[in-house]
Amino acid sequence: MIFNTFIYYIAFLLPSATLYRLMPRRFAPWVIVLFGSGFFVYFAWQMAGLWGAACLFIFLWESIVSRLYRPGSRWCFFGIVQSLVLLGIYKYWNFFTDHLFFHHQNPIHWRGQFLPLGISFFTFEFFHYAWDRRAAKTEAGSLGEYLAFILFFPTMVAGPIKRYQDFLPKLRAECVNWSNDWERGFSRILTGLVKKFAIADLMTAWTDHLNMRDIAIAHRWALPLWLLAYGVKIYADFSGYSDIAIGSAKLFGIAVPENFDWPYGRRNIQRFWQCWHISLTRWLTDYVFIPLGGSRVATWRIYFNVIAVMFISGLWHGAGVNFIVWGLLHGVMLAVHRAWRTFKPAPSLDPLVVFLSRVSTFVLVSAAWSFFCMDIHTALFFWRRLIGG
Amino acid sequence: MLKRFRDIIEYLAGEREITSLHNPPSFLAGRHEWMLRTLLWICAVVLIYAFCGQSSKFIYIDF
């Protein structure tokens, strides 16, 4: 949805990118603000009605508060807490309160719960700005520039997660080389759409079987093939999405971070995470792993930090026990890999070992997808059927 | 060899600039490169048209 609709290209992307390039520089951020607001209201309304569209006020409120951020100021701390509270309430309220009132009716269940469009991503950008302003790692910029940063619609819904200090110089730069940017941008958008339609959607014929009923009656050897299809699908789907986002940004002449670098076929789980959803991995490293002490603490704390980061990553991907298990599985794999590296610091160059490590990493990543694409009961049943027959 | 193949694929997919390629092959840097690009765009549009309509949802972005 959104990136594979005509309205996105006709009403938002093409007019805004054209106008952005034609406008004098000082007005250019406001073109993004105008079209970004229209984009949010239009698609949020379609998804969650009036209340969804009204969430545009979150951006306006954040932009006002952001003007108070100063290096070392308490307002930055307020901004950090605010972004976490927003994410917590909208995304996790029912998940946590339902577990709090386990086996009982939840008296504070939010019946009409909805997710504001792109909340998991824009709250991370709010958090990053408040944190980096507090640490004096970025300049404030003008109100228009900050609004353009948070309302830049090609990356608003699902990233790649940008950094203000990278975005600002591109926003201020003169737009040159229009024809090259548009040729590269359209090539990238078409690549993304091909990945989505011709690969990801094609896999649906297999991945639709990943439910309790079909797993119960299927031949057990079909199960890993369905899971493999899911691995292909999610990669083509999300990297296709990222291609469209990056290509769309290119039409403005703005380069946003890459999200994928051929993650399947990497030789260990650490390399996989350095190449899969790169902007998220970097965000988690900078704002969770390093503040927890990173690698400069006692050995047991390093392992704890790695698993904690992946726990948060799992929970961020979805409010469900299965996502937590998926994150923890990756955390344990990363911790085991780190422990292995202490015993054998230099990776082997033997081609057979390299090949086997690539294959085993791919198999482990694919196996872990089972907890990503199915709820916890279905995933456990999947493994009981696969192993026990 | 594999790296070069990968770089070319990434260029054709719009991920790289031609200047980032080391010794770009003549079919990418020559005068008739636009023909290859046009052909690729036509192929992409045909593929999109042929396979669209199966699903309308990106599965990774419901959050």
Topology:
The complex is a heterodimer of chains A (389) and B (63).
Chain A: H1 6-22, H2 28-54, H3 56-66, H4 74-100, H5 119-134, H6 143-150, H7 164-172, H8 178-207, H9 212-217, H10 222-251, H11 269-275, H12 278-289, H13 299-317, H14 321-343, H15 351-368, H16 370-373, H17 376-388
Helix pairs in contact in A: 1-2, 2-6, 3-6, 4-5, 8-10, 12-13, 13-14
Chain B: H1 2-12, H2 26-29, H3 33-51
Mind explaining what this structure looks like?
The complex is a heterodimer of chains A (389) and B (63). Chain A is an all-alpha fold and 389 residues long. Chain A folds into two domains: 6-100 and 114-175, no CATH class; 261-388. Chain A has helices spanning 6-22, 28-54, 56-66, 74-100, 119-134, 143-150, 164-172, 178-207, 212-217, 222-251, 269-275, 278-289, 299-317, 321-343, 351-368, 370-373, 376-388. In chain A, helix 8 runs antiparallel to helix 10 (222-251) and helix 13 runs antiparallel to helix 14 (321-343). Chain A is globular. The mean pLDDT of chain A is 91. By secondary structure, chain B is mainly alpha-helical. Chain B has one domain (2-51). Chain B is 54% helix and 0% strand. The radius of gyration of chain B is 16 Å and the shape is extended. Chains A and B meet through helix 8 and helix 10 of A and helix 3 of B.
